[in-house]
């Protein structure tokens, strides 16, 4: 069966089930149901602080086949997932589903748990490092389900992804289960990816290395959602939790791309008072922010908000008054954490508020401009940020598909070739984000506009920017690199890529 | 049928249904279900701001028999309920259920709507003024259902009270439905009573007189819950919304009671570091706070939190460092609003977080001491704050039963007689809060301790406080006033009093 993007996807996938096929970015609107939630009510005499992970596992009645969930705000510094899965494995429990918003290199102990049958399913929005590599080699019994950030909260709230026990890595928790990410030695800032888990899981456990007297302030996750609290020595390695400072690229090619992207933004007319903006933490993305900052200052423009994972660079723009407010699902650095502590206009959002297509309007719906990256782009503007040039998983949508769907102007910034391979191809290895949501691709050699955006094409014609078709861009790339060899794939499906509405946009097959 | 408190309650009540009878304050724990919620999902192109109440009523498809809800943060200044019900009535729609967290004298236009059959059911936590009086005379087709504040959110979240359309009076709303109560000419502070409505109603409409550009900060009710936004000239009369400053009584009898209550608190040993405290906005209640403040200062005590509807007086104690934090469901005055704006340790709570017995632990569960009032008390310590000496409804539980159930020490402060009637009786007109949750009654003539609190009796014996039995207190009162005449009642049930767990603790019968 081919879906509307031409991807070969079986109607039924072993270990995943019936496939609801992707039919377009906005084909699943209408009335949605948030599933009912089971709550173990707590009386005035109940205590929530438990003394050991063993007591936690007893109280939540952990058993074979359960789904346990984690969030990734501690990123490559997270200790909580490994700690919990190890403790469960020690009990001889098998067939866990691990639903974690992202997987990083530090989660490599998962590999052994997968090989031993402790973990037989994984649901995530992003994977990099050894776990991603091993899963790409087919070690997991069932295909990984990969969501977008908004799609994960949709899946949890709708009941598509039922969580038995959510484990919340809590930089600060009080004795009655109120949690925030602002304080403590493992402070990471906003906890947006953990909110749906806390609200919808059957049981919720906060694991903290900073247990404080009741009540903590501010409260990001309320006591009304948390069953138990466990104090441990450390929930993470601070070196891996937040980077020092995110840096703008100083590569001239990257800077050139950033300037061109900024010129595109200005030419569309969207760079004006009340504009909203999101960009990533990568070097080129930040360079685009730097160009925008310059322009906004020169023209005394005040935007309404910037959103996303928030970096120190965006905080600086906020502090300069270039944006009235910030929507923060995750702080990328200590500057962002500090800003979030000190201003109520730097406000948190849950992943659901950020990008869930099934609620009453996510923040991405109000985005004017988003700057995104790509590993590969096909001539229909479909973007891959999930698999690398070897066909192995090395990323995932995260907020890519969510913001691309919501924003009025979605710009991909990328060098035209990476590691001597062309970025633009007839067919990408994996479709993460559908081309209908991508408006402009900016490379150092030229700019391609999605043909359905006649309005943008019209506006860019009036500039000196090197506008061309995506086919022309592809030819330029291939002249430099030669036509890339196609990756040989087996039939084994190692990942199912769900679009934000839960339909299947693509699958990842194990490379040969 | 008599319930365990000896109240005559039918097994079935016309217009209410089967009665689940009250069996004790903590008899309904265990696993609870939050019902599923219907969500009309919103796409990037949808707009939420509508141009008129007529357009709102069209879009939510208002029709006969629907349940519409309102919150009472604008108190006696609220314009929104009258505006909406009038607009619906103009369409000839009948048989509405109006679920409003409290009813004030300004809601008297409801009387005509009740008489005309537009409104045939009312669900509320508190009623005073003409609507309460008329309902007590039997004008409503079905009995009013009266909840506690926590019980109302329980009923909404469990599905016992299904809301078709929630109308949120919004002091500030942005164009995408984010709401706060902090700014605008109708600022009222925290919006705790509206949260469950917004989260669970089929449709949610924010009605504001301060429409601001997206996004407003901070966000108390998120865009993900709000379908539509309507701008009107005024949502309320600021004179009725917040009182100027709440005042401590200067009546010597009231001051004497307050001093005795404070002595009781100290004698129990609960007045110490990390203590938590709640008191009302009445004159004696504030006088108790004043005594506590003095004691805490003298002994350098720092409490963990004060909670409730927050007054300027409690804010002063917070600012002096006597409490580390505040939990605020509703601001009683402008000082409270201002404090809420300026400190993140003055934090909001939803009514569910405040008092819902079915979530994973409400704030009331962590209360050490609560000071409450009473209209009548029986010799089993059961308290009436619902009906007056004429048998008519003039109040309701609000947070009375919730805090009494949660607090370690519940003290009723009251004069022993009011309007020449004794407060303590063999039988109260209506039971609002069960005696098992009341620990101490402090009057100017003596103090009675609930016999089951042997620990408190033991501690108070060591003081010079005038401890006596409640029967002795009753005799003193009756000596002054004579035995009061019993109120003659008809068989017509005009109100069903639901305890916070949804069981029926009492009914109100129409006085003869």
TrEMBL record, chains A, B:
<dbReference type="Pfam" id="PF04223">
    <property type="entry name" value="CitF"/>
</dbReference>
<dbReference type="InterPro" id="IPR006472">
    <property type="entry name" value="Citrate_lyase_asu"/>
</dbReference>
<keyword id="KW-0456">Lyase</keyword>
<dbReference type="GO" id="GO:0006084">
    <property type="term" value="P:acetyl-CoA metabolic process"/>
</dbReference>
<dbReference type="InterPro" id="IPR037171">
    <property type="entry name" value="NagB/RpiA_transferase-like"/>
</dbReference>
<dbReference type="GO" id="GO:0009346">
    <property type="term" value="C:ATP-independent citrate lyase complex"/>
</dbReference>
<dbReference type="GO" id="GO:0005737">
    <property type="term" value="C:cytoplasm"/>
</dbReference>
<keyword id="KW-0808">Transferase</keyword>
<dbReference type="GO" id="GO:0008815">
    <property type="term" value="F:citrate (pro-3S)-lyase activity"/>
</dbReference>
<dbReference type="GO" id="GO:0008814">
    <property type="term" value="F:citrate CoA-transferase activity"/>
</dbReference>
<keyword id="KW-0963">Cytoplasm</keyword>
<protein>
    <recommendedName>
        <fullName>Citrate lyase alpha chain</fullName>
        <ecNumber>2.8.3.10</ecNumber>
        <ecNumber>4.1.3.6</ecNumber>
    </recommendedName>
</protein>
């Amino acid at each position: 069966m081919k879906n509307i993007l031409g991807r070969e996807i079986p109607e039924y996938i072993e270990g995943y089930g019936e496939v609801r096929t992707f039919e377009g970015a906005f084909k699943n609107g209408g009335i949605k149901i948030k599933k009912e939630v089971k709550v173990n009510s707590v009386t005035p005499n109940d205590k929530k602080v438990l003394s050991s992970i063993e007591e936690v596992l007893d109280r939540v009645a952990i058993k074979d086949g359960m789904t346990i969930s984690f969030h990734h705000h501690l990123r490559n510094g997270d200790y909580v997932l490994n700690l919990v899965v190890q403790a469960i494995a020690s009990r001889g429990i098998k067939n866990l589903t691990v639903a974690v918003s992202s997987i990083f290199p530090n989660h490599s102990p998962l590999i052994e748990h997968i090989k031993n049958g402790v973990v037989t399913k994984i649901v995530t929005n992003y994977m990099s490092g050894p776990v991603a590599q091993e899963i790409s080699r087919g070690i997991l019994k069932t295909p990984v389900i990969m969501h977008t950030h908004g799609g994960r909260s949709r899946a949890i709230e709708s009941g598509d992804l039922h969580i038995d026990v959510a484990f919340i890595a809590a930089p600060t928790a009080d004795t009655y289960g109120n949690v925030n990410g602002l304080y403590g030695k493992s402070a990471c800032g906003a906890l947006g990816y953990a909110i749906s888990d806390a609200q919808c899981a059957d049981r919720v456990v906060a694991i903290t290395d900073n247990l404080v007297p009741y009540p903590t302030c501010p409260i990001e996750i309320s006591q009304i959602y948390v069953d138990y609290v466990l104090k441990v020595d450390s929930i993470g390695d601070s070196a891996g939790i937040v980077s020092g400072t995110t840096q703008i690229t100083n590569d001239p090619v990257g800077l050139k791309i950033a300037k061109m992207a900024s010129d595109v933004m200005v030419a569309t007319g969207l760079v004006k008072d009340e504009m909203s903006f999101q960009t990533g933490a990568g070097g080129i993305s930040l360079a685009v922010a730097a160009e925008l900052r310059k322009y906004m200052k020169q023209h005394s423009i005040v935007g309404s908000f910037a959103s996303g994972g928030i970096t120190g660079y965006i905080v600086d723009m906020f502090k300069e008054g270039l944006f009235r407010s910030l929507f923060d699902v995750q702080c990328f650095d200590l500057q962002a954490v500090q800003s979030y502590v000190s201003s109520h206009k730097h406000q948190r959002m849950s992943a659901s508020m950020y990008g869930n297509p099934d609620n009453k309007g996510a923040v991405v719906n109000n985005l004017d401009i988003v700057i995104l990256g790509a590993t590969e782009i096909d001539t229909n503007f479909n973007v891959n940020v999930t698999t690398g040039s070897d066909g192995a998983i090395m990323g995932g949508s995260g907020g890519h598909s969510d913001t691309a769907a919501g924003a009025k102007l979605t710009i991909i910034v990328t060098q035209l070739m990476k590691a001597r391979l062309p970025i633009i191809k007839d067919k990408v290895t994996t479709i993460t984000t559908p081309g209908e949501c991508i408006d402009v691709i900016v490379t150092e050699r030229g700019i391609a506009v999605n043909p359905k955006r006649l309005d943008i094409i019209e506006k860019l014609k009036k500039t000196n920017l090197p506008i061309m078709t995506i086919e022309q861009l592809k030819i330029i790339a291939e002249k430099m690199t030669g036509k890339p060899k196609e990756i040989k794939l087996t039939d084994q499906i190692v990942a199912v890529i769900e679009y934000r509405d839960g339909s299947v946009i693509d699958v990842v097959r194990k490379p040969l």
